[in-house]
Amino acid sequence: MIAIIDYGMGNLRSVQKGFEKVGCDAVVTSDPKVLLDAERVVLPGVGAFRDCIRNLEEGGFVEPILKVIKEGKPFLGICLGLQLLFTESEEFGIHKGLNVIPGKVLRFPEGMQEAGEELKVPHMGWNQLDVKRPSPLFNGIDSGSNVYFVHSYYVKPEDESVVAATTNYGIDFCAAIWRDNVVAAQFHPEKSQDKGLAMLKNFAAMK
Fold this sequence. Notes:
Blueprint: E1 2-5, H1 12-21, E2 26-29, H2 32-37, E3 40-43, H3 49-58, H4 62-70, E4 75-78, H5 80-83, E5 86-89, E6 95-96, E7 101-107, E8 113-114, E9 117-118, E10 123-128, E11 130-131, E12 146-151, E13 153-157, E14 163-169, E15 171-179, E16 182-185, H6 193-205
Parallel strand pairs: 1-2, 1-3, 3-4, 4-16, 5-7
Antiparallel strand pairs: 5-6, 7-13, 8-9, 10-12, 11-14, 14-15, 15-16
């Protein structure tokens, strides 16, 4: 059973429907105890980092999240769920994250350009993955595959070896990470059509 954490923020039903489409049993839960009984855990997220980390704390999710990661259960972070795994974010001030992956969450720099035109922030729409490491999430996924992004901030890990894929939007940024049982993506697999659904299926198959 896959537990999708409901802490009041995130497109939870679309993530659940994505797993259902690939034949996987996934439940949306606001009960932290359910995480401890689940085989796999998903942390989605949409919104401001500050509000999300507060909701995780108030909902009693922080300790169970850290416990299931330490126990080695497959764990997937999506969009803000990736950013929350990091040490701190500079969104609306400096706010501490879960510190599972040492590093920072930074805003895209002002004035980024491509082909002489200024790039808009947030980075929204389809963009290509440059796969750096054979993450379990990317089994059967080729470098150059297009996935769907919506974000104004990106993660910068202290240890570059955790980077599983990058994407270019004015700068090369970390689009996905992999360390042991933890995989996380800045893009939305559940909105990335066949490639994204294949990634959800890959996560469900992680040992």
